[in-house]
Amino acid sequence: MIDHGKGLDVLLIADEHVQEDDNPFNSLNNFTQAGATFFSQSVKDELDRQHAGNSLLFPIDAGGDQVFQVRLPHRPSLALCDLATVIDRAGYSVCILDNVRTLEWRYDQLKTVIQERSPRVIGISTTFLLVSSYIKQLVQQLRELAPNAKIVVGGQTVREKPELHNCADFSVFGEGEVAMLAILKHLDGEREASSIPNIAFLDEEGQLQYGASVEPGIMVEMAGKPFRARMDEEIPDADWSLYGRNRDSVYSIEFSRGCKYNCFYCTYDRGMNLRSLDSIRTELIRNAEMGITKYRIADANFTDGPPKYRRYPHDICQLMIDLDLGLQWSCYSRVDDISDELADLMIRAGCFGVFFGIESGDDRILKLMRKGHDVADSYQGVATAKKHGLFVHSNFLVGYPGETRESFGNTLDFIERARPDSITLGIFFLPLKAPVKGPKFRDYELEGSAMEWRHTTMDSDTAKQLVEEGTEYLVEQGLVFGNEFEFQGMMSVGFSADDVKAILKSRSHKRRSGLARMKVSEHCPSWLLQMAKHNASDVREMEACTS
């Protein structure tokens, strides 16, 4: 249990970075729904009066006019809950706060907790914080609020960007549970920082040092070598009782870490570390007793078991069926994993949707990506999932090295023929340390990073133009643009999976072209009141957690 005394050992925080122009997430969202509803100041004021400023409406740039749009908080963070679980079980006091900058009232709670409970350590998850300048700014703000606290940053962004390794007192690379406990032991005087695996730290003179067993590629700009999953660290069964969020939210659950595939654009850890079925059973039952039954499975690919346990996903589905807890969930999947047998088990176990990273409709590009499947597999996978009633969201990348207008045309043809229930079409995102930057792609003369790059067959500006052209074409063909993650947001504020399916399928999409094309409402609809009510419930849960 959380120690509610005045002192606090660890405060864990998270957010997602949604406002700055250099945020890659924003660059992927150039298109919006025709008829999407934007709200006036009067609607914002009405919700603020009813729910004390927690209305979920945020201002957007609309040519100087005051217009608001709904922004849902991200789902409860599994990374923070896993950390809190192991910290609590080790006998330390811990508190979680998420959405600390997205939601103003959460930032107020952050300041209150720091003032009243004086945390020894503040941990920051960078899972959804992709921009270095924002992370550095957040660390500096925390130093000003809590000058005596040690700041720890962890997550994919910190691991991949050496310029962040000295921005906090400690940086953790890879899974953080073992490292965080070791850091606490160090602060208790029981361990040297230099002996802690997979961290960076500032010594007494403020100089950057690295702990034991840090991979060389983490310390320098080494490209082309994927990270490996840690097989020697047990995956925790997350204790969500430590997390102050509405139990009707969609929660993450993790059955494995890592991925056995080697897609060259991806920075997921290679290899698969599995949880036991007994551990999964215990967590599902405990969560159901708390009212948690809606999940987004966080595995890199739920539907594929490792070579020595190929029926792992089948056995998990059968476990869910046998427990009969009324579960609802979605997952990442691969088109070459979905069989009639597995799709039937998934539906019976409560799955309503899958996220396919198909990425291209051109076999040559798929081979260059090292995807491991071909276009025929993609057609079959989409058809099989849809036949069994799974909602199919598919993602596609434009501009991977080797991409041409002809290969992009093949992708459009595939999308039009296969017709997933919803799609995302975005430009190729170039991570700093993905294998595609290694020697095997030297002939493509790949330069740049993130959303700005060039190679011998295309540059990012051309890719952005193709995304615009392709989106307009696919809209005309009746394809639905959306995101499977929208299920998590809307289901967390009271909508059912069927409600969300209907909303996504009813959309027609056009590019936003200024306020003249926007529908600005002066009326507060019932669904928005429902969202605000659920969000206010989250406020009460978090206040109970932090009091």
Structural notes for this entry:
- It is a single chain.
- With 547 residues, the chain is an alpha/beta fold.
- The chain folds into two domains: 246 residues, Rossmann fold; 242 residues, Alpha-Beta Barrel (TIM Barrel).
- Helices cover 36% and strands 19% of the residues.
- The strands form seven sheets. Strands 6-1-7-8-9-10-11 form a seven-stranded mixed sheet, sandwiched between helices. Strands 12-15-16-17-18-19 form a six-stranded parallel sheet. It has a three-stranded antiparallel sheet with strand order 20-21-22.
- Strand 18, helix 14 and strand 19 form a beta-alpha-beta unit.
- The longest helix has 21 residues.
- The radius of gyration is 23 Å and the shape is globular.
- The N terminus is likely disordered.
What's this, in brief?
This protein has 18 helices and 24 strands. It is of the alpha/beta class. Helix 9 runs parallel beside helix 10.
Percent of residues in beta strands? 15-25%
Strand order of the largest sheet: 6-1-7-8-9-10-11
Largest beta-sheet characterization: 7 strands, mixed
Task: Tell me how many strands there are.
Answer: 24
What structural class results from the helix and strand content?
Answer: alpha/beta
CATH-level-4 superfamily name of the largest domain: Cobalamin-binding domain
- Per CATH, the architecture of the largest domain is 3-Layer(aba) Sandwich
Radius of gyration: 23 Å
Overall tally of structural domains: 2
So what's the overall shape? globular
